[in-house]
């Protein structure tokens, strides 16, 4: 304390200088219009730049949580989007409860990819949601830009997804413009492309046409975008085209995915399995 | 010593009266004297005896500045410039100390320390004052060129007039 006092006495004149200078500054910015404006402007600018920078740093801490919230919201919006196509009209549902039960209802569950491969002949993906989140085999997996694959196996906390880059994964697809449909199977070459087979040669296919899911399977709802037609392979002697499709979703950068749960899945798979004996 | 204080006080008062009633109205460069102001009252602070305590120096500078500010209607601007100059004064004196050193009760005037010494001494302090004054007046580094031009022009005129005053009147009397 004594030392402090000594210091104050020693540097008293300097402290006085600072005090008086501060007082001058105060006078300048409070009694002079031009200087006041400049001061307020700079003050505001500095203040906003500091707060925005601070916020920029702090935002990173909340990013994980924010991401999860956005994924949830995305899932909810997707649900609305896909459900709106299955519900024919609201009045019908309200008047006829049996009809309501028959309508396909999609539930979307957000998940994250924790393991992925694209350069093997049979590619698989692991996601961080499993049986306890209500995930079952044969559910479709999509992203906001395209499709990812089909769930094959689940454990309690994780699920294994058959990537579209796997020859065992057949996705019922459709050319939106002309309406022709067929299975899409990966040819095992380029991870950016997949092949749509069994398109009749009289189909009016053009390069650049959009390919989406057909909606004929219970795995994916209709109109989920897949990719665009890149090349039409015309095999002489065959009745069908092989169409190379460039996928919208780059399979190398998967992160946030959404699993589609169809409420009528069990019923449809049971029924359709009965038809196998006639095939 | 008492006489000394009164003398210095009277000198500053007189210079400030000239500043307020005569020089404030004089227009030389630019429209409405936008580019130059004749500032002579800092001479009062420049000529304070060497033995003036710093504490007193700051206080005196501040009061002089505020006194001028009241008439210029720029509260704080002159005071801040005076304070900067007062702050620099001891360092300038130390920097310019002659080989033989200062003697007690010496005054920083041409008659005692030589014309050349005084010219340099006044130039440095006036330069600091003028630059600080225009910096405070314009108050933004956006117009740094403006600050420099005004400072140089004002400095030239003020310096010339101050030197004449110093030569014509013997400040000791």
Shape of chain A: elongated
**What's the average pLDDT of chain B?**
85
Mean pLDDT of chain A: 86
Strand order of the largest sheet of chain A: 1-2-5-4-3-12
DSSP, total strands of chain A: 12
Secondary-structure element series of chain A = HHHHHHEEEEEEEEEEEEH
Named at the architecture level, the CATH assignment of chain A is Beta Barrel
| Quaternary form | heterodimer
Shape assignment of chain B: globular
Chain pair sharing the greatest interface: A-B, 20 and 24 residues
Give the structural class of chain B. mainly alpha
Q: What is the beta-strand fraction of chain A?
A: 25-35%
How would you describe this structure to a colleague?
The complex is a heterodimer of chains A (279) and B (173). By secondary structure, chain A is an alpha+beta fold. In chain A, 37% of the residues lie in helices and 28% in strands. Chain A contains 7 helices and 12 strands. Chain A is elongated, with a radius of gyration of 31 Å. Chain B has one domain (2-24, 37-168). Chain B is globular and about 45 Å long. The model of chain B has no long low-confidence stretch (mean pLDDT 85).
Brief sketch in words of this structure:
The complex is a heterodimer of chains A (279) and B (173). With 279 residues, chain A is α+β, with helices and mostly antiparallel strands. Chain A has seven helices and twelve strands.
Protein traits:
heterodimer; A: 279 residues; alpha+beta; Thrombin, subunit H; six-stranded antiparallel β-barrel; 7 helices; 12 strands; B: 173 residues; mainly alpha; 0% strand; globular
Question: Helices and strands in order, then pairings?
Answer:
The complex is a heterodimer of chains A (279) and B (173).
Chain A: H1 2-10, H2 12-31, H3 33-61, H4 63-86, H5 90-95, H6 97-102, E1 106-115, E2 124-127, E3 140-142, E4 147-154, E5 159-163, E6 171-175, E7 181-185, E8 193-200, E9 210-213, E10 225-234, E11 240-247, E12 256-262, H7 265-274
Antiparallel strand pairs in A: 1-2, 1-12, 2-5, 3-4, 3-12, 4-5, 6-7, 6-9, 7-8, 8-11, 9-10, 10-11
Chain B: H1 2-21, H2 42-46, H3 54-72, H4 77-95, H5 110-113, H6 115-138, H7 144-168
Helix pairs in contact in B: 1-3, 3-4, 4-6, 6-7
């Amino acid at each position: 304390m004594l030392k402090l006092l000594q210091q104050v006495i020693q540097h008293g004149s300097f402290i006085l200088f600072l005090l008086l200078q501060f007082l001058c500054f105060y006078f300048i910015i409070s009694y002079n219009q031009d200087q006041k404006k400049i001061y307020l402007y700079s003050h505001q600018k500095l203040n906003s730049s500091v707060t925005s920078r601070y916020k920029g740093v702090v935002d990173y801490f909340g990013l994980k949580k924010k991401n999860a919230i956005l994924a949830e919201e995305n899932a909810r919006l997707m649900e609305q989007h896909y459900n709106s196509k299955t519900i024919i009209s609201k009045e019908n549902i309200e008047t006829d409860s049996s009809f309501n039960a028959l309508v396909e209802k999609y539930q979307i569950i957000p998940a994250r990819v924790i393991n992925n491969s694209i350069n093997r002949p049979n590619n698989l993906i692991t996601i961080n949601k499993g049986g306890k989140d209500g995930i079952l085999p044969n559910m479709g997996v999509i992203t906001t830009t395209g499709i990812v694959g089909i769930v094959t196996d689940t454990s309690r906390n994780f699920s294994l997804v058959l990537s579209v880059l796997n020859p065992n994964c057949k996705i019922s697809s459709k050319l939106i413009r002309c309406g022709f449909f067929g299975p899409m199977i990966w040819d095992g070459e380029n991870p950016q492309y997949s092949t749509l087979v069994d398109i009749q040669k009289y189909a009016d296919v053009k390069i650049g046409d959009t390919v989406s899911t057909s909606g004929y399977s219970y795995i994916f709802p209709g109109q989920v975008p897949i990719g665009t037609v890149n090349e039409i392979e015309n095999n002489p002697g065959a009745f069908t085209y092989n169409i190379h499709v460039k996928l919208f979703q780059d399979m190398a950068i998967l992160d946030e995915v959404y699993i589609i749960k169809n409420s009528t899945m069990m019923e449809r798979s049971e029924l359709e399995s009965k038809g196998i004996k006639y095939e | 010593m008492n006489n000394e204080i009164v003398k210095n006080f009277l000198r500053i008062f007189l210079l400030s009266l000239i500043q307020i009633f005569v020089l404030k109205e004089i227009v030389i460069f630019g429209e409405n004297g936008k580019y130059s102001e004749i500032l002579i009252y800092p001479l009062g602070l420049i000529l304070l005896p060497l033995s003036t305590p710093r504490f007193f120096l700051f206080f005196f500078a501040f009061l002089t500045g505020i006194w001028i500010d009241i008439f210029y209607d720029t509260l704080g601007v002159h005071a801040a410039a005076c304070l900067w100059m007062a702050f620099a004064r001891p360092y300038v004196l130390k920097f310019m100390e002659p080989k033989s050193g200062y003697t007690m009760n010496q005054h920083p005037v041409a008659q005692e320390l030589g014309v050349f010494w005084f010219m340099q001494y006044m130039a440095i302090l006036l330069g600091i004052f003028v630059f600080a004054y225009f910096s405070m007046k314009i108050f933004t580094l956006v117009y740094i060129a403006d600050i420099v031009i005004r400072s140089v022009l004002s400095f030239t005129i003020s310096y010339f007039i101050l030197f004449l005053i110093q030569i014509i009147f013997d400040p000791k009397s």
